[in-house]
Amino acid sequence: MTQRTFIRVVASVACAVAVFVGISGQALADWHVVQPGETLWLIGEQYGVDATDIASANNLENPNVIHVGEELWIPLDGQESPGTGGAPVIHIVAAGETLGVIAAMYGIDTVILATTNGIESPYIIFPGQELTIPYVELPVQPTPPTTPTTPPSTINPTVPFYDRETIKSAVIDLAIAYGWDPYLILSLAWAESTWDQRAISSAGAVGVMQLMPATAEWAGPALVGREADYVNSAWDNIETGIAYLSHLRGITGSDYLALASYFQGLASVERDGIFPVTRAYALGIIESRDLFANGALP
Q: What is the pLDDT of residues 3-47, one digit of tens each?
């Protein structure tokens, strides 16, 4: 599963924090030291601050990398750090664009883009729709895609392309084989990658089911019974993802908790409970299941 993470610190903010404390007698912000496995959402939940506010407060230029041990400025009362030069940009959706492609064009995370625009899983957008792109520094503007579209940074061009019917058929067959509702797994796979085996997240999650390499390399031998070519083979990627989801369901006892653990991580769910962003993710997949069952979605 994709670990969506962000970090960049503006050193001058420390002075601003001192000024805030001196004026009000109460700190309006705090520093957070990034821990292993943390994401922007998890950090935000700890402080009750929206992930987009943290990204904006830290003037994130390329919010795709997190470094354990670095400090992140948390705007506890919604304050932005001095020098935040970000400003929203409106993007008009073109034919053939997906939310993931648009997010890659602007160097931001797909879930952050979806949350900013109130788009729920499985992240369906339409040509002509206006999207607000958060914290893009002006006057720099992204280059519109050409025709044909050049694969964005979230697409691995060395991986074979599989058409949607091939992916759909594989998901259905493997879901049934592992005892899952195939429409639920279609919804999960769509939310993760829009059924694109070439998809690779900023954190390194791969393929249709967005498997982290360490997870896939363990789950292949342990759960599937063989080493899986989760990078190049859509079938192997899907089977490994479903096998891992089945493993999570066996531990948690429910589809909902398995989906939540797939997104947030089992250890975090057990330790911290389910975060609001995780709840929205899992329920969005469950609710979208009927859209795939009745043919409203591919």
A: 333 222 222 222 322 322 332 333 334 667 666 666 667 777 777
Domain extent, residue 129, equals 86-137
Shared domain check, 92 and 67: no
Coil, strand or helix at 173:
helix
Whether 285 and 218 map to the same domain: the answer is yes
Residues 6+ apart with CB under 8 A from 227: 217, 220, 221
DSSP bridge partners of 74: 30
Which residues are within 8 A (CB) of 132 and not within 5 positions of it... i.e. 6 or more apart? 88, 89, 90, 91, 116, 117
Residue 143 in domain: no
Domains: count for the chain: 3
- Smallest Cα–Cα separation from 272: which of 32, 38, 29? 38
Q: Which of 212, 275, 268, 245 is nearest to 44 (CA)?
A: 275
Which are the catalytic amino acids?
Answer: 192
3-state secondary structure of 164: helix
Residue 291 CA to residue 297 CA, distance in Å, equals 6
Looking at the DSSP bridge assignments, the partners of residue 264 are none
Name the least confident of 123-127, 180-184, 274-278.
123-127
Of residues 203, 212, 267, the one with CA closest to residue 66: 203
